[in-house]
Request: fold
Amino acid sequence: MRRKVFSIALKDNVSFLGEQGFCWALTEGEGCDIFRDIHSNIRRKAVWEGKLSKRALGMKGSEIRRLFRLSMQPGVISFAGGLPDPGSFPGEEAASVLSRLLRERGEVLLQYGPARGDEELVEVIRERMGRRGIDVGPREVLVVSGAQQGLDLCAKLFLDPGDVVLVEAPSFIGALGAFRNYQAEMVGVPMEEDGVDLGALERTVEGLLGEGRKPKFFYTIPNFQNPTGTLTSQEKRRGVLELARRYDLLVVEDDAYGELGFGTSDQEVRPIKAMDGEGRVIYLGSFSKIVSPGIRLGWMAGPEELIDRFEMAKQMLDVCPSPLIQAMVVELHRKGFLDEHVLNLREIYRSRRDAMVSSLRRHMPQGVRWTEPLGGFYVWVTIPEGRDALDLFHMAVERKVAFVIGSAFYPDESVRNVFRLSFCHEREEVIEEGIGRLGEATRAFLSG
Ligand SMILES: Cc1ncc(COP(=O)(O)O)c(C=O)c1O
Reply:
């Protein structure tokens, strides 16, 4: 009754309140649902609505973002974000390199630069790829604002609405989002312990061809996959390339974590691109995990004429990558700092992986399984069939620990009994405390 009276009183004043933006301001506490209900009823159509493109209408904010907010509440130990360890960022080194570069070459480095990227950085990238078995010419590399931009460019160049893309299931949310934004249809192919299920990949392609729908490309993360941590075996990498040849597919290979193996051999992490003799593989690299994500620097490698097209598209997005930041990375590499830094990062993340895996062994109840990755940032957890990790998420947040629900990593969100834990961001003792809380939540959840 009180609520009704309150509502009526409010309705009389509501257009005034709405105009004053008052309803927006009230978001917490008792009665706010009433404000929100009323506000959404009276909200006038914005002048831009109705003018949006079909593409824009298809872009959706995800459930994950709302859950991320829950995981950021005070006191919550979050294994949700895949944020690199901030303590490892090379702040000191970057500051001294940047101040010298600005003093000595400020006039050039604060100017626009070549759209394709700085030539010296391209040389550094070629050298680093060369060590990993990838031999490409200088015109076969494009510097981009992070591998994420490379994913968007792949979608922009290859995908018309309704086109089919094959993805590992599960796969990186940022890639799924980029492909979805161009109204592609994503078809997931299940992952096994050593990479994608090749039989399923072939059956999926055959099935699609039978329906007259030819997939454009297969998107894969062979090294320490996000979200599962899986290292794809070399046999399977060869198998992927072989299938791609047979069915005339492109392969988009995302190697964001390729340098972060914990004792893996060069051979084990050798990219698919290293075997590509015909320009079928578009390779994406990133400095986000080995320098810092805030510098927004990555690259693409592929056939020269295709890279020319990527360059045209990229130039209209952001003109050029930052000359200053590119020069900084060149210096960090030339001083030998970057190589040393990567060795340190491997140790930091290896130790955190160990802390997470040993805590999971200690605290998780029977019936729960997880991956034990050989590199990268992530552990993938499977709870018994029929249970929903979203329900566990809420119980975990009550106990002040958080993760990302796994369904978000599937194009159709169909698999519910999985979730991702990141071990990259928290120190060992925090990981142990957090996994202790998660074990408690999981035990309560599974016995309930
Ligand atoms: C598999 C994968 N690809 C690409 C990216 C984005 O990388 P960047 O920061 O270079 O855009 C990430 C970031 O988490 C990732 O996990």
